[in-house]
Write a structure and sequence with these properties.
This protein has one domain. The N and C termini lie far apart (about 40 Å). With about 350 residues, the protein is mostly beta strands.
Length: about 350
C-alpha cells in the first residue's frame, strides 16, 4: 500500500509576512489573518479596494446530533452576500431553511478567530458569531421570523475549541504565485438550544458536535470545487468526522484541507476525487489514490442556488444526506462512517 504523509508546521503569527503568504498545513490558529497584505506578483501596485473585492470569504458551521443537522453560514463573495440557516429534522424527515441574499457590504466576516465578530442583520433576522478562541470558545446566536411556510427559528450554541478536545486543520494553499486560500476547519463538542416555533431542543455536549469552517481565498474568476463533510459519535463513543475537498489549488499532495478527526486528534489525508455517475442527487463516490478514503454519500435533501447576472454567476448544489464507508487512520485502522449524516457541495461561481 502506498503511504501518504504531510508535514504539519508550527503556525506563524501572521498568515502573510513581508507581503508573502505562509503556505503550509498547521494545527493551531493564526493570530493575524491578513490576506490583504499579500503583494500581487505584478510590476504595478494593486489598490487595496481591488484586492478586497477579489477576496471571497465566509464563516460557516455544520452542527448536530442524532436528531438534527444544522448549517449556519455567512458568505461574502463580494458580488453578493448570502446568509443561511438550515435545519434538518432527521426524525421527522423535514427541512427548514432560512436564506437571504443581501448586498455584500451588509455581511461582516471576521478577520481572524481571536476575539472577533461575524454577523449579518435584517428586519426579520439576526446572525451573530463571537469568535473567542483566546478563551477556547465560539458562540453562535441566530433568530429569524417565519415566512413562506417556514417557522420562527432561533439557535444558541457554545462550542469548545480547546486543545484537549479539538485540533483544527489550518491551511494556506497556493492558487498561483502569492495567491492563496486560507482555511481553518475544526471539529469540536458543543451545547446549546434550537427553537422551532414553540418547541425547544437541547444539544448536550456529550452527544453534539460543531464543525467550524473559517475561509478566505483569492479564488480564480471561475471558482469551482467539490466538498463533503460529516461528523458524529461512533460505537466507541468517539467524536469522529472528516473534511474532504477537491479544489483548484496547486500541488494538492502537499497542500490540501483534507483530514480525519478522532476525539480531538487531527490526521491529514491525501487528495480526493468525487464521482457522481448518476448526477448530483445520485450517490457520490469519494476516494483517493492511497486507498485511505472509501466513502459513499447518498443525498436525501436537495439544496441549490442558481444565479445568472451580467457580472455574477453561480451554480451551487449542496445536498444533505447519509454517508457510508470508511477512512483509514494513521495506524491503518478502519474508521467507519456508516449512517453518518452530513452534506456535500458542488460549487461553481464566476465573479
Amino acid at each position: 500500500m502506498k503511504t501518504y504523509t504531510r508535514e504539519i508546521e508550527k503556525t506563524p503569527k501572521k498568515l502573510v509576512t513581508n507581503g508573502k503568504f505562509r503556505f503550509g498545513t498547521y494545527k493551531a490558529p493564526f493570530e493575524i489573518v491578513n490576506p490583504l497584505d499579500a503583494k500581487k506578483p505584478l510590476p504595478l501596485r494593486v489598490p487595496k479596494l481591488l484586492k478586497t473585492m477579489r477576496l471571497k470569504e465566509w464563516e460557516a458551521f455544520q452542527m448536530g446530533n442524532e436528531d438534527f443537522f444544522l448549517l449556519a453560514a455567512v458568505y461574502n463573495a463580494k458580488g453578493l452576500g448570502v446568509v443561511q440557516f438550515v435545519v434538518i429534522d432527521r426524525q421527522k424527515n423535514k427541512k427548514y431553511i432560512f436564506e437571504r441574499f443581501v448586498p455584500f457590504w451588509k455581511t461582516r466576516v471576521a478577520r481572524s478567530l481571536i476575539n472577533t465578530v461575524t454577523c449579518a442583520h435584517g428586519k426579520d433576522f439576526s446572525f451573530y458569531i463571537h469568535n473567542n478562541l483566546e478563551n477556547d470558545r465560539i458562540f453562535f446566536n441566530f433568530w429569524s421570523l417565519g415566512r413562506k411556510g417556514n417557522p420562527d427559528m432561533a439557535c444558541r450554541i457554545e462550542a469548545i475549541h480547546d486543545k484537549g478536545s479539538c485540533t483544527p486543520i489550518v491551511t494556506c494553499q497556493p492558487f498561483d504565485e502569492n495567491r492563496a486560500l486560507y482555511s481553518h476547519k475544526a471539529l469540536m463538542p458543543m451545547s446549546g438550544q434550537l427553537f422551532v416555533n414553540s418547541f425547544v431542543f437541547e444539544f448536550n455536549k456529550a452527544e453534539s458536535f460543531m464543525i467550524l469552517d473559517d475561509h478566505k481565498g483569492y479564488y480564480p474568476f471561475e471558482m469551482q470545487y467539490d466538498w463533503v463533510t460529516a461528523a458524529g459519535y461512533d460505537t466507541k463513543s468517539r467524536l469522529i468526522g472528516f473534511n474532504l475537498t477537491d479544489n483548484q489549488i496547486k500541488d494538492n499532495h502537499k497542500y490540501n484541507e483534507n483530514c480525519l478527526w478522532i476525539d480531538g486528534d487531527m490526521q491529514p489525508l491525501p487528495p480526493i476525487k468525487v464521482e457522481r455517475p448518476n448526477g448530483v442527487m445520485g450517490d457520490w463516490i469519494i476516494q483517493d489514490d492511497f486507498n485511505r478514503v472509501n466513502l459513499k454519500f447518498t443525498p436525501k435533501f436537495d439544496s441549490r442556488i442558481d444565479i445568472n447576472l451580467i457580472v455574477f454567476k453561480t451554480r451551487y448544489r449542496a445536498p444533505y444526506g447519509l454517508f457510508s464507508g470508511y477512512i483509514l487512520d494513521n495506524d491503518n485502522n478502519k474508521v467507519a462512517f456508516d449512517n453518518f449524516f452530513g452534506m456535500g457541495e458542488k460549487k461553481y461561481i464566476k465573479a
